[in-house]
Amino acid sequence: MGSRVVLAMSGGVDSSVAAHLLKEQGHEVIGLFMRTGAHEGGLERRAKTCCSATDAVDAQNVADRLDIPFYALDFERDFSRIMDQFADEYAAGRTPNPCVMCNIWLKFGKLWSYGKQVGADFVATGHYAGIVNDADSAPRIARAQDRSKDQSYVLFGLRRELLPHVLFPVGHLPKSEIRELAKDLGLPVHDKPDSQEICFVPDDDYLEFVRNRRPDLDTKGDIVDEDGKVVGSHAGIEGFTIGQRRGLGIAVGAPRYVVEIEPMSRTVTIGGRGSLEKRVLEASRFNWQGPMPDGPITCDAQIRARHTAAPATVHPVGSDKVRVVFEQPQSAITPGQVVALYQGDMVLGGGWIDRALDELPPG
């Protein structure tokens, strides 16, 4: 007899096939949908996001077809916390990653709390990732077999005590096989497009969302070059991110990029592409998925979802802070984004980037 599993069902093809695979393995599957109260939008937008009312109907239809119990849980208040954090980070000159927060707080937080209440042994999702054992036989997050879909980067925040209770049923399969299996099963979502946008940001317009969420926000200031010379003005630092080239509102001849955002002075500094190259980053709220090392260790560090993890050395600084030193400078290391560290395919841990530096500070 299999274990009882609560499965986060988004109404997409991945979590739908995950439900089938879990049931086929003999598990008792309970499908859970998160009602977030996020913006619904039109038909075109609903095809690009998750967790809308339409997605709930899709998830219910899949659950009915697979004959598994299904419940929609009200997470609107909890999700509002994620939207507030998103707006506040932009207002502070940082670039947030709300999907990471959703995983930590909701999918592997609130959903697992509900799962324990109903006697579940595991919580599962349709993420493309794996669970493998390290040298000490302890479970760790690992990359998916389909590297083009790998989502281990956004899962670094899962606490080590939770990992023995996590399942990723689709992590060992390529996306093409998932869609083919869904079609063979007659699942109505077999050709549903993947979500591409943040579910609560209408039309992918981050700036409008932030300003609607924080109507009294006033962070306007100067745009300066790397010598500190004022070359223009801006309507708010929330409109910028490190590495940005378009929408600067100035013309200075050669291409210029946002290289620094200073929230206290409300100053945006622009410079050449070379100024985006940094060798060191500092990160905090770091979560080690295994024991914290006693000193520096080599690893590969990934600083964006589409960034190829680069060779580096991580230096622990206290219990939840690190400095990461890359072998080669990396472009556009962005405060507010996350850095995930790997050894081979296994996730060492990750945290939130605070700042980028040219070199490792002395001491």
| Shape label | globular
Indicate the structural class. Answer: alpha/beta
Low-confidence stretches: 42-48
Cα end-to-end separation: 57 Å
Helix content: 10-25%
Beta content comes to: 25-35%
| Total number of beta strands | 17
Element string (H = helix, E = strand): EHEHHEHHEEEEHHEEEEEEEEEE
CATH class of the largest domain: Alpha Beta
- Order of strands, main sheet, comes to 12-15-14-13-16-17
What average pLDDT do the residues reach?
Answer: 91
Main β sheet profile: 6 strands, antiparallel, barrel
Annotation field: number of helices: 7
User: Any idea what the CATH architecture of the largest domain is?
Assistant: 3-Layer(aba) Sandwich
Task: Please name the fourth-level CATH homologous superfamily of the largest domain.
Answer: HUPs
Q: How many domains comprise the coordinates?
A: 3
Gyration radius from CA atoms, angstroms: 22 Å
CATH overall fold name of the largest domain: Rossmann fold
Topology (elements, then pairings):
Elements: E1 4-8, H1 13-24, E2 28-35, H2 43-46, H3 53-66, E3 70-74, H4 76-91, H5 98-117, E4 122-124, E5 129-133, E6 139-143, E7 166-167, H6 175-184, H7 206-213, E8 221-224, E9 230-234, E10 257-262, E11 267-271, E12 277-288, E13 297-302, E14 310-317, E15 321-331, E16 338-343, E17 346-357
Parallel strand pairs: 1-2, 1-4, 2-3, 4-7, 8-11
Antiparallel strand pairs: 5-6, 8-9, 10-11, 12-15, 12-17, 13-14, 13-16, 14-15, 16-17
Helix pairs in contact: 1-3, 1-6, 4-5, 4-7
